[in-house]
């Protein structure tokens, strides 16, 4: 029983860390610009496809494919932000929701057209496969790897936000965009950089997720709900909120499906509704 | 004039009658969402909850031996409305992103609940053995859908008239006031939460009617009647046509379902691509939907 709980906590935390990478960018940009980008999961999807393609076509190793997925999605997001999303910052939330849902539809069609509907597989290097036994419990090595990567990224994010000039600008823009602008901050530029960073992280998360949740053109839709729950439960614009929300959701989801498979995701949604009714701004929400 | 055109499928495209009744049902559902989204400003991504509740209610009583359509329809609408009134107390507590997420979460909750109660709902297999008795004991539901379409169209027409009266009343004006400025309404002495709760319950009830219509005309209810896709589709239909206009809900539904029928027949990928592009174009260039866009052109001509 104890070992079951340990393994559920471990697997759930690993899944939560994937969700964290996929959603933290959305949380920060939502907190900054109030832009509800439901297409965020699509960046995760294309990140996954980039990783799969460069490994299969160019024969690059897994560890090289991950940063490539990040860079490709960061660049793509700059292009999309400049051409499309920028026009909608002043539009109402409903229009933003619909426009970005439209983007997800187009992304799904584009992915089907290019890669087909089959589930993509990623071939992990030998050292990431299998599991290690500690105290009678078998831990998946790949899941441990995901946790390690996510913790490093979190440390970098927190360090970057607290210690660097750009971090200070981002925090200022999240807390009070108008005030930051009034003090002469180029909020648009800060936003573009943050947006690219967030989408890059989504791409990285997508690449890491292929082995765990699979990759098909519906990835953007599947992840959308998870990402939105993390963001709304964690609270907008808060990295620690996203982290806590993602860990909670990941563990809750795996535990629910493991111990009570017959009720599926019922508990997660109940928790979501309950938390939002008590704290409409999320656990760590500021405004 | 529009309502006369709605009779055309009987003569011109009898093979499309099942699609036509599907459109009438979806249009009724879209009107229910328009009442809360277009008129009261409640953005919902979980309204299929009430559509599905109505469908399951009508289906379950029919399986248990009561297949009389009109009383079944009314009871299903009442049931969905009562649940809607209870839920409205939660809905009026939250706003913005939290509101979208709470509606989404409640929608998923209902879906999971139906999935977890297979003895009542049939679970993933759907509900089987629904038998709808002839309307007034006279008109049987035929294989080609003549009765089904006439029935669905009649219910749509009645609900449309009702909704039009509602939105043009002082109550409807108060709702628009709430949509435009939530803070100012209490200042002029309007009970804005009470208004919102009432319209939410009415909307839930109409959505329940639409669901019950679907159960009765197709004799099937499956889990997808509660799904997120259905909630999202109906919002998309409404936006395409134009929110805050009852005809917008109907027009959007026709465009959406006919386009899907035609495009998905060629290749489902084209459908996804087409609907995505259509959504983006409508948001960028026609913020008030296709009907709002047309109205503006007509005004310029004058």
UniProtKB/TrEMBL annotation, chain A:
UniProt keyword terms in alphabetical order: Amino-acid transport, Cell membrane, Membrane, Transmembrane, Transmembrane helix, Transport
GO molecular function per UniProt: transmembrane transporter activity
Entries under InterPro entries matching the protein: ABC_transp_permease (IPR001851), BCAA_transport_permease (IPR052157)
GO cellular component term, pick one: plasma membrane
Entry annotated with the keyword Transit peptide: no
UniProt-listed GO biological process terms: amino acid transport
Keyword match Transmembrane: yes
Transmembrane region(s): 6-28, 35-56, 62-85, 97-121, 141-161, 190-213, 266-284
Primary location recorded for the protein, binned into one broad class: membrane
UniProt topology in membrane: Multi-pass membrane protein
Top-rank taxon, per record: Bacteria
Locations listed in the record: Cell membrane
Family: Belongs to the binding-protein-dependent transport system permease family. LivHM subfamily.
Protein name: Branched-chain amino acid ABC transporter permease
Species whose genome carries this gene: Devosia ginsengisoli
């Amino acid at each position: 029983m104890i070992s079951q709980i340990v393994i559920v906590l471990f697997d759930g935390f690993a899944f939560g860390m994937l969700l964290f990478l996929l959603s933290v960018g959305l949380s920060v940009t939502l907190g900054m610009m109030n832009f509800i980008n439901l297409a965020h999961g699509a960046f995760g999807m294309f990140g996954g496809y980039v990783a799969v393609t460069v490994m299969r076509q160019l024969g690059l190793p897994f560890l090289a494919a991950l940063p490539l997925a990040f860079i490709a999605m960061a660049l793509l997001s700059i292009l999309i932000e400049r051409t499309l999303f920028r026009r909608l910052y002043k539009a109402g939330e409903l229009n933003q929701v619909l426009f970005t849902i439209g983007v997800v539809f187009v992304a799904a069609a584009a992915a089907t057209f290019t890669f087909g509907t089959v589930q993509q597989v990623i071939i992990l290097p030998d050292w990431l496969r299998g599991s290690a036994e500690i105290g009678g419990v078998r831990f998946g090595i790949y899941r441990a790897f995901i946790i390690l990567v996510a913790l490093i990224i979190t440390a970098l994010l927190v360090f970057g936000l607290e210690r660097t000039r750009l971090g200070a600008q981002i925090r200022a823009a999240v807390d009070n965009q108008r005030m930051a602008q009034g003090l002469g901050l180029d909020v648009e530029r800060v936003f573009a950089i943050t947006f690219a960073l967030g989408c890059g992280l989504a791409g990285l998360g997508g690449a890491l997720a292929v082995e765990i949740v699979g990759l098909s053109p519906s990835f953007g839709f599947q992840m959308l709900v998870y990402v939105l729950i993390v963001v709304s439960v964690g609270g907008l614009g808060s990295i620690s909120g996203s982290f806590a929300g993602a860990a909670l959701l990941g563990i809750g989801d795996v535990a629910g499906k493991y111990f009570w498979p017959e009720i599926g995701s019922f508990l997660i949604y109940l928790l979501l509704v309950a938390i939002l009714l008590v704290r409409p701004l999320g656990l760590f929400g500021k405004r | 004039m529009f309502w006369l055109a709605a009779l055309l499928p009987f003569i011109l495209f009898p093979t499309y009658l099942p699609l036509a009744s599907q459109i009438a049902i979806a249009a009724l559902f879209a009107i229910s969402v328009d009442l809360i989204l277009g008129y009261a400003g409640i953005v919902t991504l979980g309204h299929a909850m009430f559509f599905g509740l109505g469908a399951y209610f009508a289906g379950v009583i029919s399986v248990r031996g009561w297949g009389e359509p009109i009383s079944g329809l009314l009871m299903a609408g009442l049931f969905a409305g009562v649940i809607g009134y209870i839920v409205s107390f939660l809905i009026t507590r939250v706003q913005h992103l939290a509101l979208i997420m709470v509606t989404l979460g409640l929608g998923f909750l209902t879906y999971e609940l139906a999935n977890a109660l297979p003895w009542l709902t049939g679970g993933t297999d759907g509900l089987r053995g629904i038998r709808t008795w002839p309307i007034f004991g006279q008109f049987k539901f035929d294989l080609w859908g003549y009765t089904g379409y006439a029935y669905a169209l009649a219910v749509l027409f009645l609900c449309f008239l009702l909704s039009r009266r509602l939105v043009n009343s002082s109550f409807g004006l108060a709702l628009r006031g709430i949509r435009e400025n939530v803070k100012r309404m209490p200042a002029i002495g309007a009970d804005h939460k009470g208004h919102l709760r009432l319209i939410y319950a009415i909307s839930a009830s109409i959505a329940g009617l639409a669901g019950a219509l679907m159960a009765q005309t197709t004799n099937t209810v499956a889990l997808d009647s509660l799904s997120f896709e259905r909630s999202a589709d109906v919002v998309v239909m409404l936006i395409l046509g134009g929110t805050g206009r009852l005809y917008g809900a109907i027009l959007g539904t026709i465009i959406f379902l006919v386009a899907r029928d035609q495009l998905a027949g060629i290749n489902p990928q084209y459908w996804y691509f087409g609907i995505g592009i259509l959504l983006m174009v409508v948001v960028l260039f026609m913020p008030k939907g296709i009907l709002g866009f047309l109205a503006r052109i007509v005004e310029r001509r004058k």
